[in-house]
Structure formats: structure tokens, C-alpha cells
Amino acid sequence: MKLSDSIVAVALGAAAMYYLDPELGRRRRAMLRDQMVARRNEASRYLARNARRAAGELQGAAYGARSAMGMTGGPATDGQLRERIRSALGRLVSTPGSINVGVAGGNVLLTGHVLAGERDRLVSSIAGMDGVERVSDQMAVYDEPGNVPELQGAKS
């Protein structure tokens, strides 16, 4: 018998004594089982999370490739275009809730209240969006928020 075989035999014997001890063995086995279950659950959550992330990245790459090749599935509907514009308002103006957006056949109607410093950027950004044919600006323009309730909290 080699020395390494003896070391393995001693280690296995010590582990058996530790876990099969008549007084504390049951508790030790239960703790080991709980730790193994916890590690298995952590690994499962980790794999599921990374699988979802990878699937999302793959789907995004596929959509990007389709878009680059011009296979986007046709023009956006008026409802889709309206929601894209509403989404962009938060990045373009300080009070997006003060602007109403209407879309019909790719023609965009903007009504509501806007600050003068934000108006030009807003109209040009919306006019440059895919699917927008024309922008009709019927917004009330103000130099500062003043007493206009819709513009309260705006950056002057």
C-alpha cells in the first residue's frame, strides 16, 4: 500500500466518523444536505439568469441584423409611432407631460405647452424619426414657466 492510498483511507475514515457520529452526525448530515441544496439553487438561478441575458442579446442581435438588411416588417403603425414619440419626449423636454401627440398617416400633431429653448430641438428630433412624414407644431411657446401649471418644475 502506497502512502497516498493510506492518506486517502485516513481521510475517508475521518469523514465517516465525522458524519456518522451517533451524537452530532444527524445534525452534521442535515447541515451538509442544506448547504448542498443551497449551492444547487444558487447555480440554477445563475444559469437561468445568464440564459435569459444571452437570449436577450441574441434576440437583439437578430433584430439589429434584420434592421440593417432592411427586413423590418413594414412601416410603423400610427399607434407605434405615437408611443415612440411619447417615449422620446422625456429626453427632449423638461416637462413631457405638457405636450400632447397625435399621429395620423405619419403626420404628427403637437399641441400643449413648451419652453422656447426646447421647441426647436423637439420639432427637429421628431421630424427626423423614421415613419414621420410631417410635423405640425401647434404648441403654445413660453420663454419661462411663469404661471403655466403644465410647465411648473421645468428647467428655465
UniProtKB/TrEMBL annotation:
InterPro entries named among the record's database cross-references: BON_dom (IPR007055)
PROSITE patterns linked: BON
Residue ranges of domain BON in the record: 77-143
Protein name as annotated: BON domain-containing protein
Pfam families: BON (PF04972)
